[in-house]
Amino acid sequence: MQDNPKNSKTKLTELGEFKLIDHLTTNFNITQASTKLSIGDDAAVVRHQDNTLISTDLLVEGVHFDLAYMPLKHLGYKAVIVNLSDIYAMNAEATQITVSIACSNRFTVEALEEIYAGIQKACEIYNVDLVGGDTTSSVKGLQISVTAIGVAEEENIVKRSGAKPNELLVVSGDLGAAYMGLQVLKRENEVFKVNPNNQPDLSPYAYIIERQLKPEARKDIPELLEKLEVKPTSMIDISDGLSSEILHLCNSSKVGVKLFEEKIPLDPMVISSCEEFELDSTTIALSGGEDYELLFTIKQDDFPKIKANPNLSVIGHMTSEDVGKHIITRAEQQIPLVARGWSSIPEQE
Ligand code: ADP
Ligand code: MG
């Protein structure tokens, strides 16, 4: 009889908390000069010459992720990415993270190793140091909280509140793919439950699935804008869907907006999968969420500097607040822009 691989897994209690932290973090390197003291003391020590930026996110199993279709390594990677995205959205450089984990005894040492492999990959790719965290048990499920630390010169920091009427609204990359990737994964998970021998061919959906399972943060966009000598007047990252992020910029900046439906950047695979799922691709881009693209405003004079760049799309312009917040459809209808979280999109039958 073959060994049941489950039997070879190591219970968390076999290692104990201190050995576990050591075990999980031993391969992490420190690369940032600003990291003065890392894991192993009561607090990490970081010295930045300029402003320090801090951002935290908490991911809860069953609310923010489902381990039925989220591999643990990807989960670790994504937990870091969503936080780095917030630092880049301030036009800052991310330098350190801390990671806090609560998990039930259903998780093994090997499971946590997978999560930390993903965390380490993100640290290497984005050049951030893991400098601390906390580890504890939970009654049920897995929770991961990441805090990202960054640095920026005062005059470079871009807030949500700086947009002015007539400025252009710009977005990086394309939208809606992460949500459509999730729809494919959910569908395949249902099929798998009915017939576990069914091996689905997911290769036609590679891009949208990758956008859901392995999103990237747009570290390159603040760097690109600096090179182009464009300083955004306001900026936010797209975690909850384009419409709600646009409304955040409008409300913080006290301006209105005209968004043009035909300008919203969509990957061909988003368009084809929306057709397959009978969803409207504009609705998905507006409400889908988890795209982690950057949304920002620029002065009209800066338009020539960005217009040829394939990473950036001008999707509208800001107006005075009293004009309101609207989307202009392809049929040239003007419709009020409303915030709808991704959870409010009707589920597919
Ligand atoms: P304390 O009792 O002071 O909270 P801990 O025993 O929780 O200390 O942590 C010891 C060291 O290990 C600290 O430097 C802490 O930042 C780090 N650490 C604890 N848990 C994690 C984790 N999940 N990931 C990374 N570092 C961690
Ligand atoms: Mg602790």
Automatic annotation (TrEMBL):
Q: Which GO terms describe its molecular function?
A: ATP binding; magnesium ion binding; thiamine-phosphate kinase activity
- Catalyzes what? thiamine phosphate + ATP = thiamine diphosphate + ADP
**Pfam families on file:** AIRS
Question: Which residues make up the binding site for Mg(2+) 1?
Answer: T56, D57, D134
Recorded hits in InterPro entries, A to Z, give: PurM-like_C_sf, PurM-like_N, PurM-like_N_sf, ThiL-like
Entry's EC annotation: 2.7.4.16
Q: Which residues bind substrate?
A: H64, E290, W342
The pathway noted for it is: Cofactor biosynthesis; thiamine diphosphate biosynthesis; thiamine diphosphate from thiamine phosphate: step 1/1
Annotated positions binding ATP: Y116, G133, D134, R160, S239
Signal peptide positions on this chain: none
UniProt: Mg(2+) 3 binding residues? D42, D86, D237
**Ranges for the PurM-like N-terminal domain?**
40-152
Keywords associated with the record: ATP-binding, Kinase, Magnesium, Metal-binding, Nucleotide-binding, Thiamine biosynthesis, Transferase
| Residues holding Mg(2+) 4 | D42, S55, D86
Q: Quick one: which residues bind Mg(2+) 2?
A: D57, D86
Residues the record lists as binding Mg(2+) 5: D240
Might you name a Gene Ontology BP term for this protein? thiamine biosynthetic process
**Membership in a protein family:** Belongs to the thiamine-monophosphate kinase family.
In its miscellaneous comment, the UniProt entry states:
Reaction mechanism of ThiL seems to utilize a direct, inline transfer of the gamma-phosphate of ATP to TMP rather than a phosphorylated enzyme intermediate.
What HAMAP family does the record point to?
A: TMP_kinase
Q: What does this protein do?
A: Catalyzes the ATP-dependent phosphorylation of thiamine-monophosphate (TMP) to form thiamine-pyrophosphate (TPP), the active form of vitamin B1.
NCBIfam families, sorted: thiL
PANTHER family found in the cross-reference section = THIAMINE-MONOPHOSPHATE KINASE
Q: What is this protein called?
A: Thiamine-monophosphate kinase
Instruction: State the organism of origin.
Output: Mesohalobacter halotolerans
At the highest ranks, the source species' classification is: Bacteria, Pseudomonadati, Bacteroidota, Flavobacteriia, Flavobacteriales
